[in-house]
Amino acid sequence: MEVWDLYDSKRNKTGKTHVRGVPLPEELYHLVVHVWVENDNGDVLLSKRHPHKSYGGLWECTGGSVLTGETSLQGALRETQEEIGLTLDAKIGKLLYSQLRQTHHLDVWLFRSNATIEDLTFQEDEVIDAKWVNEDTYNSMLKEKMIVPTLHHFYQLKESTI
Fold first, then answer.
1. Best CA proximity match to 44, nearest among 126, 129, 116, 131
2. The Nudix hydrolase domain covers which part of the protein (predicted)?
3. Range 24-37 average pLDDT
4. Whether 79 contacts 86, CB under 8 Å
C-alpha cells in the first residue's frame, strides 16, 4: 500500500495523507517525480513500460509518486532504484522543472550516469526493457509515438533550463 503526503495548490503540506488508488480529495495534490538520466555522450536512458500498465509498451524516463515523509529528491532516488536498480548520486541531481498538474505537483529531475543496460535490474511489474538513446533517436521515437505522451520533451526541457 502506497501512502502519499497531500499538498495544497501552492505546494504546502496539509498534514493529511492519501492511499494510492482512492480518489484524491478536491483541491489537494500529491507529489510526482520524473527522473531523466543522461550519460557523458548526451544520451538519455529510457525504460519500456510493462504492457499491463497504462501506456504499456511505450518508453519513458523513470518516475513515480513520492511517498509520505520523502522529499522530492528522495522519491526520485528511490523510484530509480526500485524500477531499474540504478543507484544515483544525490549530490549531482538537478531539479529541472516543477509544475502543478491536474492531480499532482510534478518535479522533473536530471542525473548523470554511465551505467550500462547490463547494470540495471528491472522491477518485474513496471519495466520490461531499457536503452540509451541519442537526441535523433529520441526525436524519431517521439514522432512515432513510442514515448509516453504525458512526459516533457527531454531535450527541449534541458535546453530551456541551461
1. 131
2. 28-160
3. 96
4. no
In total, how many domains does the chain have?
1
Higher pLDDT: 51 or 153? It is: 51
- Percentage of the chain beyond pLDDT 70 is 99
162 pLDDT tier (thresholds 50, 70, 90): low
For 76, counting Cβ atoms within 10 Å of its Cβ (0-12 exposed, 13-18 middle, 19+ buried), the class is: buried
CA dist 32 to 117, 138, 145, Å? Answer: 25, 23, 23
pLDDT at 130 > cutoff 80: yes
Contacts of 5 (CB under 8 A, 6+ apart): 13, 14, 16, 17, 18, 30, 31, 66, 68, 69
- CATH number for the domain that contains residue 138: 3.90.79.10
Separation of alpha carbons 148 and 43, rounded Å:
18
pTM as predicted: 0.94
pLDDT at 33 over 70: yes
Backbone angles phi, psi at 41, to 5 degrees: -85, -5
Q: What is the mean pLDDT of residues 59-85?
A: 98
Q: Which residues contact 51 (CB under 8 A, 6 or more apart)?
A: 57, 128
Q: Which range of residues forms the domain containing residue 7? A: 3-161
